[in-house]
Amino acid sequence: MTLTVAGLQAGYGGGTVLHGADLTVPQGTALAVLGRNGAGKTTLVHAIAGLLRPKAGSVRLDDVELAGRPAHRVARAGVGLVPQGRRVFASLTVAEHLDLSRRPGEWTVPRVLELLPRLGERRRHKGNQLSGGEAQMLAIARALLTQPRLLLLDEPCEGLAVDLAARVRSVVAELARGGLAVLLVEQQPEHALAVADHVALLGDGVVVATHTADELRASPHLADRVLSVATHA
Ligand SMILES: Nc1ncnc2c1ncn2[C@@H]1O[C@H](COP(=O)(O)OP(=O)(O)OP(=O)(O)O)[C@@H](O)[C@H]1O
Fold first, then answer.
1. Which numeric CATH code is attached to 2-81+150-232?
2. What is the pLDDT along the chain (233 residues), one digit of tens a residue?
3. ipTM for the predicted complex
4. What is the number of alpha carbons within 13 Å of residue 173 lying toward its C-beta?
5. For a substitution probing ligand 1, which of 41, 201, 204 has the most ligand atoms within 8 Å of its CB?
6. Does ligand 1 have an atom closer than 6 angstroms to the CB of 127?
7. Beta strand ranges found along 35-90 (DSSP E)
8. pTM of the model
9. Which of 44, 74, 113, 218 is the most buried (most CB within 10 A)?
10. Where is the ABC transporter domain (predicted)?
């Protein structure tokens, strides 16, 4: 299963933010999308997830066209979203969140709790009693229970303490190794390199460059250039 985004255009009202973005995420790999604030990373994730209707272009899971489908149908086709800011309900317990997200499939509640054991310990805690890291784990658990083949994560490490951010990154890398296609938005290039197989740079509404993480690790000069484009372009 491969995600193929081609010529994707999207924006708000009459304005266009994405001017024809192209990228590919094969199953079993993670692609990190980097770009400065306002580059359109969230817009890209929302356009793939069907939360924002693309103005043009295509979003395909293998041969299935998703562009133009509403979000619930995109989800049913196998796209799970971990939104920016986690979106956890303050008054629902962890167990209730998991129950609400559950669809039949290989990801069961016991399986997600095995992957994210801290959530098991916090089953009876409400959303507003969770730490940022726990809320992020819950957001990932909810997305997995929808049985995705493609997982979209919008800045999953934002605002997390260093050790928790590292834990989230290792869970995300494990999910990709386990066979999911993963697309994650990252602010920090060094975090992206820790989890992703490929790094795509978004600038001016298009993907201006894609590199393998190995390439970037092997060439500090190239990594510096990417870093400066990602943060200052
Ligand atoms: N709901 C909206 N209505 C109008 N304009 C929007 C809306 N959401 C985002 N924008 C604009 O679209 C552009 C891209 O925003 P987007 O959130 O996709 O960027 P981003 O790369 O995710 O940024 P950040 O790193 O700050 O999250 C920005 O100029 C932003 O102001």
1. 3.40.50.300
2. 999 999 999 999 999 999 999 999 999 999 999 999 899 999 999 999 999 999 999 999 999 999 999 999 999 999 999 999 888 999 999 999 999 999 999 999 999 999 999 999 999 999 999 999 999 999 999 999 999 999 999 999 999 999 999 999 999 999 999 999 999 998 888 888 889 999 999 998 999 999 999 998 888 888 787 777 777 64
3. 0.95
4. 15
5. 41
6. no
7. 56-61, 64-65, 79-82
8. 0.95
9. 44
10. 3-229
